[in-house]
Amino acid sequence: VSIISILNIINTISTNLILRTQEISIYKAVGMTKFSIKKMTFFEALFYGINATIYGSIIAIGIVGLIFIKFNKIVEFEWDSSLLPLEHILIVGICSIGISILAGYIPLKRINDRAIMENIRGEE
Fold first, then answer.
1. Mean pLDDT score of the chain, rounded to an integer?
2. Nearest one of 44, 39, 53 to 97, comparing CA atoms
3. φ and ψ at residue 20, rounded to 5 degrees
4. SS in 3 state form for the chain?
5. Virtual CA dihedral for 85, 87, 93, 97, nearest 10 degrees?
6. What per-residue string of b and e applies to 48-75 under the rule 16 or more CB within 10 Å gives b?
7. Which of 7, 58, 118, 124 is the most exposed, fewest CB within 10 Å of its CB?
8. Whole-prediction pTM value?
9. Burial of 41 (0-12, 13-18, 19+ CB in 10 A)
């Protein structure tokens, strides 16, 4: 499941940047520096990573709660704080944000290696 999640994050962010190649090239053509473009990409990827962490954590906690409720009807369980490992959620969140940031720089390098006019025209 982790590999699928990682590939999904990379695919989403990479596709988003590749589809915006013309837009990024126009920014470069009108004077936006490479540093500013990297900064914009960094914050965009950071936003994706934080959102994925928040929504993923909420959904995971909800699923754990539902499983607890269903199993509690079969066998009596007492809610234990170890059922919700917050340190693991934090570690996964940090990894998710890190992967998102790295995934933003992969297509950006490809965009920066090509000529601005080729990118604006959409030539491959």
1. 83
2. 53
3. -100, 20
4. CHHHHHHHHHHHHHHHHHHCHHHHHHHHHCCCCHHHHHHHHHHHHHHHHHHHHHHHHHHHHHHHHHHHHHHHHHCCCCCCHHHCCHHHHHHHHHHHHHHHHHHHHHHHHHHHHCCHHHHHHCCC
5. -170
6. bbeebbeeebeeeeeeeeeeeeeeeeee
7. 124
8. 0.76
9. buried
What are 55's two structure tokens? Answer: 């929504």
Nearest to 42, CA basis, from 105, 90, 113: 105
How is residue 107 written in tokens? 């297509």
Q: Which has the closest alpha carbon to 2: 44, 64, 60? A: 60
Residue with tokens 């995934």: 103
Rounded Cα distance, 2 and 107, in Å:
22
